[in-house]
Amino acid sequence: MSEEIKKSVIYSAMQPSGVPSLGNYLGALKNWKNLQQDYDCIFAIANMHAITVRQNPTELRKKTRDLITLFIAIGISPENNILYVQSDVKAHAELAWILNCYTYMGELSRMTQFKDKSAKHADNINAGLFTYPVLMAADILLYQADLVPVGEDQRQHLEITRDIAERFNNLYGDVFKIPEGFIPKTGARIMGLQDPTKKMSKSDTDNDNNVIHILDDINLIANKIKRAVTDSDNEVRLSPDKPGISNLLNIYGAVTGKTAEEAQNEFKGTGYGEFKKCVADAVVAEIKPIQDRFKELSADKAYIDSVIKDGAEKAAYIANKTLRKAQKKVGFPV
């Protein structure tokens, strides 16, 4: 009997800092669902990262639970993957401290996300915000991940993770697997509906019409799309000088499985009103089954409790093996 081929391990995490946007879904979560067929996937709710910005404790607990429920509603299987809450696995904090001692201040000070978040939260520039990439490195390295899905804004974090792991390995031997970046074959970059020059963000609180949240009321989702900014020439085509229309074509293509070019050809000669209605209908058709499943799962408290408990146990089993190896190398009693 031939030996079963071992699948590569993919690790990814999402913060429970708000309800995921359509951009999060089409750019990441939909891909996570597809990845589970070919990879051993580990998906985390990164609630330890979330507290670098002040959170309401009750809301954070609810958002954490809602996010793991939403993962399942989207089609990410807790039976075939590891889904867990970061703070349930103490090895994250323990390895992060060890890795802090192998990370240089200069490396951390060059991180663009630290600069960006410091500007947004000038009254709360805390040490956790500064050492955030070290915790992220611990997240990835604990699970000996082969691959980490990365967008443009996360490349720096993966690079510093690789640098820290290589530095540690050069001193102590092959403790950590050096992860590679993974760019899925499909995955749309979805921009804001009112400001299509900037990426749609779940944490955008300045203009609610700019972002579609996965759990928004279905009618509200359709209306947000119908109110999306366009331009005056009423021609549906992809063009750098038509960012609003190009974004809607990308959204339509991503939810229907078509390329943006195919979508453009489909709407040749169509006016903006009819085009926006078709985009809205396609998005609603994609999102409504997820919302229905989310409501059904949310009502089954015992099931979600069991998923969270089982996920923590599975994750801790893997993470603790790596942690003990690192602790032994640095001279801690194990």
Number of domains: 2
Q: What percentage of the residues does DSSP assign to strands (E)? A: 5-15%
> What is the CA-CA span between the terminal residues?
38 Å
Number of helices: 13
Helix content: 40-55%
Question: What is the CATH topology assignment of the largest domain?
Answer: Rossmann fold
| CATH homologous superfamily (4th level) name of the largest domain | HUPs
Low-confidence stretches: none
CATH class of the largest domain: Alpha Beta
Rg calculated over all Cα atoms: 21 Å
Supply the CATH architecture of the largest domain.
3-Layer(aba) Sandwich
State the secondary-structure class. Answer: mainly alpha
Oligomerization status of the protein chains: single chain
Q: What is the H/E order?
A: EHEHHEHHHHEHEHHHHH
What is the averaged pLDDT score? 90
Task: Tell me what the structure shows.
With 334 residues, the protein is mainly alpha-helical. It folds into two domains: 9-184 and 301-330, 3-Layer(aba) Sandwich (Rossmann fold), CATH 3.40.50.620; 208-296, Tyrosyl-Transfer RNA Synthetase (Orthogonal Bundle), CATH 1.10.240. 54% of the residues lie in helices and 7% in strands. The chain has helices at residues 22-35, 47-50, 57-74, 91-100, 105-109, 112-120, 127-142, 155-172, 218-226, 243-256, 260-266, 272-298, 301-330; strands at 9-14, 40-45, 82-85, 147-149, 180-182. The chain has a three-stranded parallel sheet with strand order 1-2-3. Strands 4-5 form a two-stranded parallel sheet. α1 links the parallel β1 and β2. α7 (127-142) crosses α8 and α9 (218-226) runs antiparallel to α12 (272-298). The radius of gyration is 21 Å and the shape is globular.
